[in-house]
Amino acid sequence: MKADAFKIADGVYWVGVLDWDLRDYHGYTLDGTTYNCYLVFGEEKTALIDNTYPGSSAQLWARIYDAFSKEGKEPKIDVIIQNHIENDHSGCLAEFVKKFPDLDLYCSPKAVNGLISHVPALENFDMNVVKTGDTLDIGGKTFTFLEAPMLHWPDSMFTFLAQDGILFSNDAFGQHICASERYDTDISEDFLISHAQKFYANLITPSSPLVLRKLDEVVELGLLEKIKTIAPSHGQILTEPMKLINKYKEWASGECKDKVTFLYDTMHHSTQKMAHAMMEGLISEGIQVKSYFLHTDGRSDIVTDVLDSKAIFVGSPTMMNNPYPSLGDLMYYFNALSFKKTGYQKEAVVFGSKGWGGGANRKLTADLQGAGFEVVEQYDLTYIPTEEELLKCYEIGKEIGKKLKSE
């Protein structure tokens, strides 16, 4: 196939893959993504940073050949920098090793065994293991490596290109966006930030303390003021890097809006009526409300809004002494994400309709507490809510709203 490379600096090209059709990734929904790869031409060697999913390499090779053509050189990869072992970063590494058997491969210490597992052809391959502060000069282009474990896998690392001020940030600062434009400034800022927030909420949240420590380390190494561009592994290239760096600081430190996220399901609309009444109480106090109906809405969008919410309201009817089944998936996900690691303990309200003995509230309360939420209110009622009970729902929302605004 024919595909064009995109020049982002002298001798530096985006040669990634546009995946227009991907709709589910890491368990959350999206409308396509990119697997960003970067080709850097030095005076002595040419380096490729990461590669792509198995079966999607035709685009990558086409862009690589185009970049070599633009530089007036014969195609030859001398160095591969493997910032991450996951398949969307390493899936066609074997193709490059086969075509260029003398290439040098650079990775973090924790990547070695993982790369062999993902790419068995590397079992007897001599890898160059690099640690934070190590450098590589390919002739007028110097890379500095920075280990970034658990952002978001143990093997993850960043690579900084000194001469051009480009931080190849791996999955950090990424967004699952598939656009024909390459830069952040070419698309809506709100669209970019919302997708970066979704990426952070679903993939980075459990590592929030590490995000803050890594940002401090970048400052200590004197790199922050040198970063002119962030080139992540997914989404748009960031020409205004401080916008997302500051957002990461906010999300990692638990900064929240006066905002509540509702997530509920309903059997015969009683729990739904309770939710709507509680929303009105919150709205009366100027609280922003986001609502998700679990009949149709998915976990990945829910947790995106939970990330910067001070509280969540969780509603479920009781079915066979337990919450409605759709709540179970989300409770597992909350436990895995550990929002408490952002440094702010979010509050939770549990509510729902029951037929006789109940049980949903007790189970949801235990699950939410186990996931790090502080359950500040529980309310259930029998069958269909009366006007008096709906008024109580309104008052619960209003009182919680007042409390959140005072925090």
From TrEMBL:
Domain Flavodoxin-like: 260-401
First and last residue of the signal peptide: none
Domain of life: Archaea
InterPro entries given in the database record: Flavodoxin/NO_synth, Flavoprotein-like_sf, Metallo-B-lactamas, ODP_dom, RibonucZ/Hydroxyglut_hydro, Rubredoxin-O_OxRdtase
SMART domains in the cross-refs: Lactamase_B
Alphabetical list of PANTHER family matching this protein: ANAEROBIC NITRIC OXIDE REDUCTASE FLAVORUBREDOXIN
Official protein name in the record: F420H2 oxidase
Gene: fprA2
